[in-house]
Amino acid sequence: MIKAKDMKTSIHKQRKHSLASLNMKLIIKVKLILLMIGISLSSCQDFLEAKPDKSLAVPTSLRDMNAILDNNTTNFYSFIAEVAADNFYHTEALWNAVPTERDRNIYIWENTAADGDGGTLAGRYRTIFNANIVLETLPEISIQESEREEYKRIQGFAYFARGYALLEMAQLFTEPYQESIAATAKGLPLKLSADVNEPSPRASLEETYKRIEGDLKQAAQLLPAQSSSPTRANKAAAYAVLARMYLYQRKYPQAGLYADSSLQVNNQLLDYKTINNSATPFPIFNREKLFYAYASSSNVTVARAKVDTLLYASYANGDRRKLLFFRRNADNSYAFQGSYAQSTITFAMGPTTAEMYLTRAESRARAGNKDEALQDLNTLMRNRWDNTFVPFTAANANEALRLILAERRKELIFRGLRWADLRRLNFEPEFAQVLQRKLGNRTFTLLPNDKRYVFPIPESIIQLSGIAQNDR
């Protein structure tokens, strides 16, 4: 069995070798990669001003394609949604110590400065740009028949990377999906070509989700059941992200269908009874993870972020997550230590089998299938509790749904999913939440369906592109 440490070393060497090879073959001089607005972004932090000369960068092999997709931006995602959600709180002193005004403002929903430098969009559109290069170049590469499956895998990974990036951005920069308004509501600029001169106006919300759906379904058809590295997508991951997409659209039967498809490929769970408590108790590449994506934020470090008091209290004694996810601070508050990134400063964002059990359970409960819904929930909980676990029961499907959503909240803490869950559940009065922050004698409130559930497009991008800003 390959140990996690060995696996990390192997993947690091694989990426380093792959990228070094690409750099020898492809001299890519980038000052400005225009993406969504006719501008592309050469890093996650700033805009530079020149476009790539494709005559200097001609990928010629599948190895080159792998190097492009193995770029860290494919796996690195934004954490601003987690910062804006309700999993943790700051004291005023700790909030004042957050290094950037941007991150402080996200925490109190002062979104005028959120992503002000375009960093979040930069990373995602760089991923999309890389995927577009691969999708456009692959048909021009001559391959041997023995390389056919690898060709399909790379093509599938490119579709997956583009669809996943668009889905994440949709939860930040477009309003929550409602079928009644989707045809006219603002979606994302859909950059589907590596041509930097091709304009990319904002599509509708419906067009945006159709593109995400199309990309992820293509990925699911092309990707293999197993991948050579946890940082490369496989079929179960594509089905899982499709399940997320349908969940965010509140299309619950489809969400359950694709969660089931993912679980048919991989249904393995970690048994928390076998996990020893430590500062980072979970292996980075464990069997629950379907795709390794990660994020970090200066807001959500162990030293700053204090787990919401009511949320911590909701974990019962005997629930191993209470022991493994949290550690007590000197002031008797709690910090989160349960990252599947095996880190106290980096957080795992990719889909897991546990998430798929919860998605399928929710779909079944909403369809009135109480017994099957509880079966999924109890399968997961047996692997989360010690030997005192008593299976959950419910009088009806709605009661089962409440149990499932409560466990979803506890299971998926600090996975970057809570913001999207708040957005969709705010349409149901029974589950809608009023969020509050308290800093000294100041109180900040976010009501259900507030316009601040949509982040503004960074002003720098508005000025350069002329695309429409989100309603504020």
TrEMBL record:
It is found in: Cell outer membrane. Residues 46-247 form the SusD-like N-terminal domain. Gene3D superfamilies: 1.25.40.390. Transmembrane segments: none annotated. One of its GO terms (cellular component) is cell outer membrane. Keywords: Cell outer membrane, Membrane, Signal. InterPro entries: SusD-like_N (IPR033985), SusD_RagB_dom (IPR012944), TPR-like_helical_dom_sf (IPR011990). Coiled coil: none annotated. Its main location: membrane. Residues 354-464 form the RagB/SusD domain. Pfam families: SusD-like_3, SusD_RagB. Belongs to the SusD family. This is RagB/SusD family nutrient uptake outer membrane protein. It comes from Pedobacter aquae.
